[in-house]
Design goal:
Helix 3 runs antiparallel to helix 4 and helix 3 packs parallel to helix 5. Strands 1-3-2 form a three-stranded parallel beta sheet, covered by helices on one side. It is mostly helical. It is built from five helices and three strands, in the order E-H-E-H-E-H-H-H.
């Protein structure tokens, strides 16, 4: 079993601590831009995520001292899906399997820019901890 959880839902600020405590979550990785605010009809954000953000997020995910850990973004699709896909690359999944999982979570609303990012992501940029988690075993 893995202590990384991926969810597609919104967490309201009023209930976040209670909800996360019920899940047993120790750490949360939120893959949103710093200037992020809740979406409204007037506010549309990019689904693009930076290489720096992905490296930081994957590094947090593979650090067992953060587990159990919850990885979230506003919709649980594009940014979170990109981070998970890059984690899958680190796990040496085939690109076809990575893209199949990514497309399943994006409900086939493919972002070509994200898929290109995933394909070109250099896993050597991620520092693997000495006591790496079991899900990174080859």
């Amino acid at each position: 079993h893995t202590d990384i959880r991926k969810h597609t839902f919104y967490i309201t600020f009023d209930f976040r601590e209670i909800f996360l405590s019920d899940l047993g979550v120790q750490s949360v990785v939120l893959t949103e831009p710093e200037e992020s605010t809740p979406l409204s009809a007037k506010h549309k954000k990019s689904d693009h995520i930076t290489e720096e953000t992905v490296i930081q997020a994957v590094s947090l995910l593979i650090d067992q001292s953060n587990h159990p850990i919850l990885l979230i973004c506003e919709t649980g699709k594009y940014r979170t899906g990109t981070v998970v896909a890059c984690l899958r690359k680190l796990q040496r999944w085939s690109l076809s399997s990575i893209f199949e999982e990514y497309r399943r979570f994006t409900k086939d609303k493919v972002k070509v820019q994200n898929e290109q990012f995933i394909e070109l992501f250099d896993t050597d940029l991620v520092n693997i901890p000495l006591n790496k988690p079991h899900f990174l075993d080859s």
